[in-house]
Amino acid sequence: MFDVVVLFFALGVFARLVKSDLRLPEALYETLTIYLLLAIGLKGGLELSRQPLMDLLPQVLAVVTLGALVPLVVAPLLRLAGLSPVDAAGLSAHYGSVSVVTFAVALTAVQRAGLPHEAHAPLWVAVMEAPGLVVGIVLARLALKRADAKQGRIRWDLLAHEVLLGKSVLLLMGGLLIGAVAGDAGVAPIKAVFIDPFKGVLALFLLELGLVAGGQLGALKRHGLKLVLVGCSLPPVLALAGASTGHLLGLQAGGVALLATLAASASYIAAPAALRVAVPQANTGLAIACALGVTFPFNLLVGIPLYLHLAPHFAR
Amino acid sequence: MFDVVVLFFALGVFARLVKSDLRLPEALYETLTIYLLLAIGLKGGLELSRQPLMDLLPQVLAVVTLGALVPLVVAPLLRLAGLSPVDAAGLSAHYGSVSVVTFAVALTAVQRAGLPHEAHAPLWVAVMEAPGLVVGIVLARLALKRADAKQGRIRWDLLAHEVLLGKSVLLLMGGLLIGAVAGDAGVAPIKAVFIDPFKGVLALFLLELGLVAGGQLGALKRHGLKLVLVGCSLPPVLALAGASTGHLLGLQAGGVALLATLAASASYIAAPAALRVAVPQANTGLAIACALGVTFPFNLLVGIPLYLHLAPHFAR
Amino acid sequence: MFDVVVLFFALGVFARLVKSDLRLPEALYETLTIYLLLAIGLKGGLELSRQPLMDLLPQVLAVVTLGALVPLVVAPLLRLAGLSPVDAAGLSAHYGSVSVVTFAVALTAVQRAGLPHEAHAPLWVAVMEAPGLVVGIVLARLALKRADAKQGRIRWDLLAHEVLLGKSVLLLMGGLLIGAVAGDAGVAPIKAVFIDPFKGVLALFLLELGLVAGGQLGALKRHGLKLVLVGCSLPPVLALAGASTGHLLGLQAGGVALLATLAASASYIAAPAALRVAVPQANTGLAIACALGVTFPFNLLVGIPLYLHLAPHFAR
Amino acid sequence: MNKHPKTKLTLVAEAALEPRLLAELRRHQAHAWTISEVRGAFPEGDRDGDWEADRTIEVKVICDTAVADAIAQAVLSKYAPHYSVVLYFSDVTVLRAERY
Amino acid sequence: MNKHPKTKLTLVAEAALEPRLLAELRRHQAHAWTISEVRGAFPEGDRDGDWEADRTIEVKVICDTAVADAIAQAVLSKYAPHYSVVLYFSDVTVLRAERY
Amino acid sequence: MNKHPKTKLTLVAEAALEPRLLAELRRHQAHAWTISEVRGAFPEGDRDGDWEADRTIEVKVICDTAVADAIAQAVLSKYAPHYSVVLYFSDVTVLRAERY
Ligand SMILES: Nc1ncnc2c1ncn2[C@@H]1O[C@H](COP(=O)(O)O)[C@@H](O)[C@H]1O
Ligand SMILES: Nc1ncnc2c1ncn2[C@@H]1O[C@H](COP(=O)(O)O)[C@@H](O)[C@H]1O
Ligand SMILES: Nc1ncnc2c1ncn2[C@@H]1O[C@H](COP(=O)(O)O)[C@@H](O)[C@H]1O
Ligand code: NA
Ligand code: NA
Ligand code: NA
């Protein structure tokens, strides 16, 4: 049976398809984003306070590498699917980064299924947001250079600032640190806000995402069936890479599922924003339609249940 | 003793009357609306999952008929009170529809009083929103036709879309379906957001409604005492019709009180919006002043306690 | 160890200093303000319902006097520090009033420390907001008169309206009354919104305040070290006055700490707004930099722990 | 840098009209516009509701004078009688004339 | 379709001034206006607070040139010395002249 | 009351450009401006995303014609090729010319 949050997503998609006037106010959407990032960070931070940081270093290095390699694999595949060099690189940057909401859904699914997992997994999210994004941007810039020699230089300092000190990494890392420093006793008084309502807030967020994803149908039609095929076939491939990395790291079953989900998910908030700044020539409309309109629902409905199902085979 | 939520309403009215700068941000107001509709729907949906749907058909037909008949009775009464044909029909559409917040207050009152009730009552709200509204609009258009033969045709397709796929019916129905499909186990993890804080959120909403209702005083003065009399005398009459319908359906005491409240309540969100689209000649200012400035507080302070008190006499 | 809410403040300051794009939507900020004021009021009101109102009269008179005297002491000190007469008076108005958030942090600290305290303390907040503010404004107007004889008259009626019926006093007083009237039983059903999440909401609010305070660095630099010295040295002095008043009133240790905090805190929301209306010549930029950029973090990090530590020596 | 004269038509109206105003623009081949949420006031007329949901929008469209006139004419005859709507024209100059 | 020339006066000011600016408009018999919430920037002057509550509004009023001038004059003398306020005039044309 | 002619330059662009547009203004010594959050529409082009985060802003700056031209020129050449940006000029008159 589907998780209840998936039903909220479906309600949002339906509302948009039938052209209902239902809209979530922008301030609510922003608030939900801030909340989810902080809450996920806090959860992971509580766990961090319980274990020696040094033990995590290999994991961090492994997931960073995983994220950075994704665009190198994805971009050529997208070229084969007929995308222009710049668009292929741009879209590969989205898959190199991660979707925090997809992670949140997987996390609640893992908990519901009672799979044992590394509770510091939110740390992976934080460190996986940037590397693949940056690699994808570099690929796109190289493609541009090849097409047009007098391309301006990319401002790496601005880009690093945008990504590393952007809202999502900052709140995730901030939550992790606060959780780690405050520990269980310190976090207890704010539990009623940051822990208990987590899943209900996620449900509201998915309603909003459903509204947006439902609005991507036009873009999907314009780009043809190709985009749907791409958005559905990349996740399982990437999930396999994630699960294998999890296997090498000796993760528990839940941890494998989470890492598979992270690899398989595509960013549709941070990545498009960074691309607009760094490579405006890449078609972000196409990328959002693919990441949010296809891959996100695919992971929600098919991917996550699948990854959870297969994870035990890769687990330590 | 008054329910605490009524005190929040009073605070809002007071703040507006003394011209305080207190305002709730529009995004908060929209968020509260979305929340209440979803939460009410979910509550009812949980109950729906427990009983055979077919048993509800007679109830649904009965409450739809009740809603549709209301404007046919109310419009002539309003003509007697001196309103123009179009304004009388327009205002009757508001009484034909329902006020979700009034229902929410009645629901918490019924629960507090421990009256046994049909837990699927939110279904009545969803199906009662449209019929009376549509009948009232037809009456208004007929009145216009009589006054001016070259009136344009009404776009029923647009209107049906506006009402049936509008935010309120969509969220109520969506909540009902999600609750019915997910059942108690599925809804449990989002209880901390959609069930437990319900009454507190209702209190905030009533603060906002108090602010708006307090601002209707100017309109009330302009339209004279007449409007106050109308707004206070219609609810008991309509409540009687609602209670009788409840009696015929063999409802429990709480169910009778809820149906009486629905009949007695007047829409001040969905109805004015639909009227602006379908019959812009009708005075929505007058209608809002009456529905929100008089009938809503009347039901809150006098009506609901009264209906609860008398409901057992009509109950099965 | 720091309270967890202080860590959220630090995160906000950090985000601003590194120029992150993190912003809380304005509607969220307004919602948090409304929530905190209502929740603090409700808490105090519950306590008010338990004791004879007349017993509180001496306390009310004493704290009003305390607030009114503050600017008379602070303004001359600020003149010594080199501020212009109008700016000194204007800033003294901020110290004469109170910071509700500082109070909220002190309240949770007192509860965490298990110090016995007068649970009706929110009443002090409500009655201390206006007196010092008004005295400070009078001082500023006198300073202007001295400099320029043809100054227009101040509209006291407008000002009284702005302050006494302004959002903060209205919500605090409204919450107090609702709490007092409804009592424990009446408030119970809205506990899940107004009581349990209090500290978590406070954490979010401090994140926002951190963002704003972090943005005051520019103003601080412009005004020089002087402002930092002023903002750090006034609070302990004023706290001593507050603690002594608490001693004279025979308060419990927690009550002494709370009253010390109130005296030591400076308003950075209500006071600047009132000053803009009543004395636009006073530099509100400077006042906000001092009150929010220096005194607020000082109280958070150093002041409140200190006042709690010393309070027992002043207690009954 | 070639500057071309165009007309900016501004419509201020109750938000309920939004879909129909935009349909009117499209009907006149004006496919680009800018909308802002505003707050309005008008001398007390026959529309006196001030309920929160009673929002006001401002639509600006830059186009040829003839198009602006045609849109204004259509809006005035269809909506002005029963709806709150105000419209005015301003002269502007644009750079890439082919875009309007 | 008769077009009539009017003046649009735009005031950009700190939000604290709103009630007083509107009172000024009413005093000059301008009973209709449009307000937007905006964000502003101005060369660093003696007002340097950038606290969230420090909002800026833009008020637009379409009226006869004489009225616009009188309002501008009043606002300039009463508020410009101590408040953040900017004002400018534009020429516009309207259709139903009797409404302004 | 002396009125001085100035030019108002209006830029409507995707919000991602905000920091860079403002930097452009500063580079041309225009240190005061007004920004509004708006919603936009434009004939379907090569940018077709309509994700919530895809906001649009409107920047208005009142300055001398030469400055407005220079800003427009710079924005057009640097950003128009790859970003959504529209710009137009209007004539306005101001009172305190020294402020612009
Ligand atoms: N003279 C005016 N100047 C500026 N805005 C106006 C003016 N008249 C009307 N408006 C705006 O247009 C909206 C509709 O006006 P009305 O059609 O008079 O109800 C009002 O809510 C105002 O926002
Ligand atoms: N030259 C300008 N162009 C556009 N807007 C301006 C200009 N100067 C000032 N403003 C706006 O007017 C507000 C008040 O300006 P000031 O009186 O200079 O503080 C500022 O916050 C800006 O939003
Ligand atoms: N003719 C127009 N009239 C008014 N606003 C326009 C017009 N064309 C474009 N815009 C606005 O400018 C933004 C950017 O336009 P574009 O560069 O065409 O993507 C759009 O989102 C609209 O808000
Ligand atoms: Na990924
Ligand atoms: Na009804
Ligand atoms: Na104080």
From TrEMBL, chains A, B, C:
Keywords tagged on the record: Membrane, Transmembrane, Transmembrane helix
Annotated InterPro entries: Sbt_1 (IPR010293)
Keyword field contains Transmembrane: yes
Signal peptide: none
Entry keyword annotation includes Magnesium: no
Superkingdom as given in the UniProt entry: Bacteria
Pfam families named among the record's database cross-references: Sbt_1
Ranges that cross the membrane: 56-78, 90-111, 123-144, 164-182, 202-220, 227-250, 256-279, 286-308
Name the record gives this protein: Sodium-dependent bicarbonate transport family permease
Native species: Inhella crocodyli
Lineage: Bacteria, Pseudomonadati, Pseudomonadota, Betaproteobacteria, Burkholderiales
TrEMBL record, chains D, E, F:
SUPFAM superfamilies: GlnB-like
Pfam families named among the record's database cross-references: P-II (PF00543)
Signal peptide, first to last residue: none
GO process annotations (BP): regulation of nitrogen utilization
Classification via InterPro entries: N-reg_PII (IPR002187), N-reg_PII-like_a/b (IPR011322), N-reg_PII/ATP_PRibTrfase_C (IPR015867)
GO molecular function: enzyme regulator activity
Protein name, as recorded: Transcriptional regulator
Organism of origin: Inhella crocodyli
